[in-house]
Amino acid sequence: GLLRDVTIALSVGYVNIVSSSTKTDAGVARMHFEFEIASPDHLDVVVRTLRAIGGVYDVIMSSPAS
Fold it and tell me: For 40-57, what is each residue's pLDDT tens digit?
């Protein structure tokens, strides 16, 4: 249900998911999402929303590959 919860949160937050991948090992899921957002301020809201989901332990942001 965690993948569902995360994708719903992104969708409700008007985030356009460009790509995603999920790997699970020893009961820990690592999810990688590339998405488009309206502004840097919007990113702060999205991160706070994701961190509030039960089962999400951390949200790490990285710059897009060039």
Answer: 888 899 999 999 999 999
**How many angstroms from the chain centroid is the CA of residue 44?**
12
Helix axes 40-51, 2-12, angle to 10 degrees: 150
Cβ atoms of residues 15 and 39 within 8 Å: no
Tokens in use for 11? 């969708």
CA distance 32 to 43: 15
List the one residue out of 19, 22, 18, 12 whose CA is nearest residue 55: 22
- Positions of the chain with pLDDT under 50: none
